[in-house]
Write a structure and sequence with these properties.
Alpha-Beta Plaits; two-stranded antiparallel sheet; binds adenosine-5'-triphosphate; binds 2-amino-6-hydroxymethyl-7,8-dihydro-3H-pteridin-4-one
């Protein structure tokens, strides 16, 4: 069994609907253990694009992390995601990234291949990943970077977290 923290994001079309789609599909693929709140977040990395909706999920299942990656990419495709070769961080209907994964004994699963890096190589730089992650794993540690709670409290991350808007009226939970 593996437990995976997913970051989901959308900044094209009906953002809430795209996140709900990701939750519904991942709940079909594994056991949905926790769902964070939804945040509206300023675009990171390429600022000339609309704001994102972001959230985090914790899902468990018998899959390998490589199988989870294929599932995540399949879900992005089903949501109509188009990849733009010329633009690194282009707007997208749905992004489903593996942030971190854990074996049954709680040990982090590490990968460093061209297809899959675990933990996600940019996780420690992204408020839109770290803040929702804390809601699904309050005692999370990011291998190589320490406690996630410490990361979100330290500057400049704390300022970026303050720029995120919690949207409690947007619910993602599946029935
Ligand atoms: N932890 C990971 N989660 C998702 N994709 C990963 C991961 N590690 C490596 N990848 C690889 O990254 C490639 C690019 O993925 P994608 O197009 O979703 O990137 P992005 O979302 O635009 O940027 P970023 O990966 O920085 O969030 C994928 O082909 C995938 O194989
Ligand atoms: N706020 C925000 N910015 C981003 C996001 C995202 O999900 N949210 N995803 C990106 C590529 O993975 C690049 N930039």
């Amino acid at each position: 069994m593996t437990s995976v923290v997913f970051s989901i994001g959308s900044n094209l079309g009906d953002r809430a609907d795209h996140l709900r789609f990701a939750v519904r599909r991942l709940a079909q693929e594994g056991e949905l253990l926790a769902v964070s709140g939804v945040y509206e977040t300023p675009p990171w990395g390429d600022t000339e694009q609309p704001a994102y909706y972001n959230a985090a999920l914790l899902v468990r299942g018998p899959q390998s992390v490589e199988q989870w990656l294929l599932t995540a990419q399949g879900i992005e495709h089903e949501a109509g995601r188009v990849r733009h070769q010329a633009r690194r961080y282009s707007p997208r209907t749905l992004d489903v990234d593996l942030v971190a994964a854990f074996a049954e004994d709680g040990e982090p699963i590490l990968r460093d291949t061209p297809e899959l890096t675990l933990p996600h190589p940019h996780a420690h730089q992204r408020a839109f990943v770290l803040r929702p992650w804390l809601e699904v794993q309050p005692y999370a540690q990011l291998p190589g970077h320490g406690w996630v709670n410490d990361l979100v409290l330290a500057e400049p991350m704390a300022t970026e977290v303050a720029m995120m808007t919690a949207l409690p009226q947007v619910r993602l939970e599946v029935e």
